[in-house]
Amino acid sequence: MVEVKDLVKTFQSGDGTVTATSNISFKVPDGQFASIVGRSGSGKSTLLSLLGALDEPTSGSIVVGNKDITTLKDHELIAYRGKSIGFVFQNYNLVPSLTALENVMLPMEFAKVPKHARIERAKNLLAEVGLDETQMQRKPGRLSGGQQQRVAIARALANKPALILADEPTGNLDAATGKMIFDLLHTLSRKENTTIIVVTHDLEIAGKTDKTFKLDDGKLIK
Amino acid sequence: MNPVSRGIRNAFRNVVRSGSIVLILGLSIGLSLTMLIAQKAVDNKIKSVKSSIGNTITISPAGFQPGSDEGNALTTSDLKKVQALAHVQSVEEALTGRQSTTGSSSPSFGRFDSSDDSSSSTTSLTSPVTLNSGGPRFFAQGNASGSDNAASATFSLPISFLGTNNPGSVSGTTITLSKGKAIDGTADTNDALISKAMAKKNNLSVGDTFTAYNATLTVTGIFTSSSNNQSAEGTVVLSLPALQRLSGQSGVVSSAVATVDSLDNLSSVTSKVKSTLGSSADVTSAEEQADDTVKPLNSVKTVSTFSLIGSVIAGAVIILLVMVMIVRERKKEIGVVKAIGGSNVRIVGEFMVEALTLAVLGAVIGLIIGVIGGQPVTKMLVDNSSSSGAQTTSFQEPGGDRGGFTIRRSGAGDDMQTPPTGGGQGGFGGRLRTNAATRSFSNVKAQVGPEILLEGFGAAVLIAVLGSALAAGMIAKVRPSTVMRAE
């Protein structure tokens, strides 16, 4: 269960204060696929940053698996990000100097998974997202956008996280590839029983999720 | 793949840029290493010079005025006070004089020199030291006129006479009797020791006689000097009382060397001698002489130390700027790694390995530069420093002997023909000693041993660590939320 309660995030901007999220509260049960929609600047990505412990909220709480992540210390946050959360970004954000296989192995290395186990799991995950052995040894620069996003999904699933956070995962892809990636995310999350929260502009994609939250000007309106 | 191999691989992400950085670092580390080699070589030489100093104090009359008889004479009674001081083991006293060869043209000399135009200033001996014969070239200068009189082929060098209570050494050089017997330095007799070269030149052997100071002297022994010192070869050794009598300078001493029981007491005894003799004498300990001698080397050491520090700082700044640039370039990547569970320590470690890889590659190039450039740079620094030091010393030092001759030699070993500035003072002994020390500086050997190589790599590690420090701080400040921002 992901439970967000009275979440507020404000930024200092020039002389004034900008409220990115204002008293947001919602719940997403385990294994559900939820989406967050809204216009640009509505606070979607900020909310995702707060859920993934990439940023600290100004006030409020975020409980993931009975643990309030807003109270965690730095080293606990690093472990939380590494083991409990999987990220999928719009720009893929793979490490360019590493191969696809090494990119998927990286979070497992941080989680101290033994080398042979991480190689095996990384290969299995990459095979599941549709990459062959040759593509696994390629660096991101030599993969297409769709292939890179598949690698990013495999990386997000590497440590079997409780929660996957996806920020516009199909935003840089054509419609067909985007649909394929969304279906892949959906299928794998069902298979691994992972909760997914996806930020998207695409209302068609949002319509296929179990639950949709709409943000407007930092406030949850639906 | 572990952080170390990732860091090494990251160092080669941009081969052209990394190659340029390694080359620049190589030059910087090479300069550091060259300066380290120079510093070590000079340091070793200084230690060697200082370790070779004796526990002696040199005493000479103060206030020499070239060409004048004015000034403070040092006397045997003064030196008795020195001999009575605690920790003084012995005092070697000496009086020197010069005599021209009968019938030859020669200059006159300064104070203490008993030579004049009368027959009392001439000797039947001829100097074995020849002019313009491939050795050091000499200039003679008349005392009174002060004008330059370049030596001609007909000129005969004067004979030096040394009256000493320790006839075992001449002009700082130990002598060995090859024929005959030694003389008693305290007995007032007309017995004399001459060099083998002098004996050969004048067809003299033990028991033969020659004239000087209007007296007949007997050769009782023939000696060889330990280093074929030309000054020693042109010197006749008498007992101190004999030369004092012959030259009419009763009780007068021109120089003395006091030996102290240990190096630990050298400094305190030097102070006591200075206070005992007051302004009547110049008192210099062997330690002070060694300090004077190594002055040029100390300046080389200072230059090399500052250059070493400068080049290490330059190397660190290069790495620092490079690492700052790399961190800025990879800010988003750092955010990604943090977002997927990477800790600051791990990321900083990876960047440090990258910096270390560049620095070590630079160190390899630097070592090659250092090994090739160490000796020539050391030699150049020492030569430049010692030649300027030698010129300065040449004009300031009173010299250990009296007379109008100055032998100068540049640090590089080239002879210099420069007339002395004054008439009387100068002297074989002091000049020769100074110039020998100066010449030995050009033999400073720069050695590249395992210690230097280790220190070179140590410098590379230091450069990498220092240069990565700011980058590490920047990495720690990168927030994982950076990853959410659009590029």
Report on this model:
The complex is a heterodimer of chains A (222) and B (487). In chain A, 37% of the residues lie in helices and 27% in strands. Chain A is an alpha/beta fold. Chain A has a six-stranded mixed sheet. Chain A has a four-stranded antiparallel sheet with strand order 2-1-4-5, covered by helices on one side. In chain A, β7, α7 and β8 form a beta-alpha-beta unit. The longest helix of chain A is centred in the C-terminal third of the chain and has 18 residues, at 175-192. Chain A starts with a strand and ends with a strand. In chain B, the strands form four sheets. In chain B, strands 1, 3, 4, 7, 13, 15 and 16 form a seven-stranded mixed sheet that branches. In chain B, 47% of the residues lie in helices and 17% in strands. Chain B starts with a helix and ends in a 10-residue tail after the last helix.
